[in-house]
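Quick question, first post here. What does this chain look like in 3D?
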Amino acid sequence: MRYTIIIFLISILAVSCGKDKYTTNPQIEYKSLKPNAIRSDLPFQVLPQLTIRITDSEGDLGFDPPNDDTSFVYIRTIVNGTIVNVVDSFPMPDIKSVVGKNYEADLFITPPFKRSTRPSPKTDTLFYEIYVKDFARNKSNVITTTDPVFYDIR
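> Answer (accepted):
Ran it through. Tokens below.
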């Protein structure tokens, strides 16, 4: 009986200490980056699409023209292991019709391409750092893609 009570108390403690999925600051999670290769000599090709999962307890994301509120996605490119100091920002679209409390969705982004200045032919390896800010300017966690994009410059 004593062990049953101890196991029950440990189980309650473990469940109650779990991280809340929905927080005031948006939370993002890397999902995928596909396709992971591009060539500079091809006239038509599919650009990579970055997919992240975003959650927010207030759902104050998107573009709200009447209130002049806009939330942004920020992306910094890492080329061949070197961080490019420029941070590109992209406004989120108008999603107020689907946003509510405890918002969760996948966000699809076509990331920018920064090249190194090494002479051709070469292959640049690109990673991305991403974060999001909501209407209240709460900053999400910063994530880095785990899968590279190979940019073959000919």
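Helices lie at 2-16.
The longest strand covers residues 122-133.
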